[in-house]
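User: I'm writing a tutorial on reading structure tokens. Could you give me a worked example: one chain, its sequence, then its tokens, then a sentence or two explaining what the tokens reveal?
Assistant: Sure. Here is the example chain.
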Amino acid sequence: MPDSPKALLVTTVSGFVPQFEMNNVKILQNMGYEVHYAANFYTPSYGNDNHRLDGTGIICHQIDFVRSPFKASNLTVYRQLLDLMKSERFSLVHCHTPMGAVMARLAAHATKTGPVIYTAHGFHFFKGAKPINWLCYYPMEKFLSRYTDQQICINQEDYACAKKHFHARYVDYIPGAGFDAGRIPPMTSSEIQKKKQTLGLPLDRYILLSSGELIKRKNHETTIRAMALLKDQIPNFQYVICGHGQLHEYLQHLVAELNLEQHVTFLGYREDMLEIFQCADIFLFPSYQEGLPMAMLEAMASGLPIICSNIRGSRDLMESVEDKSFQAETATPHSLEMCKGGIMVSKPDQVESYASALTQLLSHPKQLYEMKQINVARAMLFSTSQVTKRMQKIYQRISCL
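And here are its predicted structure tokens:
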């Protein structure tokens, strides 16, 4: 009996596959592939360890990835990938994350391993990005696209760029990693109240929620500063932040400095987000940069109105409306864009505009209710079933190369 073909997934940090790619793992395993995973397992993300890989059937390989392209240790990473690809003789490589994709494509080209798929979860160059991003990352991605059989993009801006400028054999748009709405646990009002009590959240306040790593890119500082403006206008709110990261202490000090200790709660990294979403009234997502944000998609699928920055990825999830009349009167012209499921703020660092958007939504409970229904329906366009159909076709096509 011939050995099963082997597929290699590559990411810089080890939490990426269990967080976002298990659906693709299942597709590959159902196609008969033995799935291997190369990552730096000493730097887990989306959790503190790698326990979510237990029992998945995935064979793991430690590669000493670093996030910076300018580290000399990338030579070690390159040699490790060369050795791995030579010894295992993979039939397919699917890489994710910027440095994981750079090193995997170079090694695959050198060892003639392939075909190679690269899913870009948000290019570092985009409209509004710093010039240095375009100078460094755009030429690198364009060059490496020659070593890419299948380029996958998860938002329309990246897809248009790759389709027009890159050299991959195939370029496809996939609406994110896919979200299974069936995973959302049905909760009664009493169960939601009990969950709030368990989390230490007040029962008589609006719950405003953010979820994401505590890093600069996620921009929690802006929404915390917006809370300082909001507390004098609408004092009955609690801002809940889920996630961990290097800015944890800084953000806690900022909360204390702004006298917001009674209004801001840090819950750390959570594996029960699908329950916590149901405890909230509004989801805040002020990121500077996204590919297609899963946290925001999960919030929409859970029925939360959204206030987010008007950026690539987040913009893909929101649905615009023609009627722009429902905007904050105090906002600067064009600083807020009303959408069917919430409000987009034109620039991520506009503290006053986030406060104005919150004031508007909290003052209009009817619109809040309508947005809940709209977002649940909108999220279905990015569901696992939609993504699975497209990924199955891509894997089948690419496996024939």
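What the tokens reveal: The longest helix spans residues 16-30. The two ends are 23 Å apart (CA to CA).
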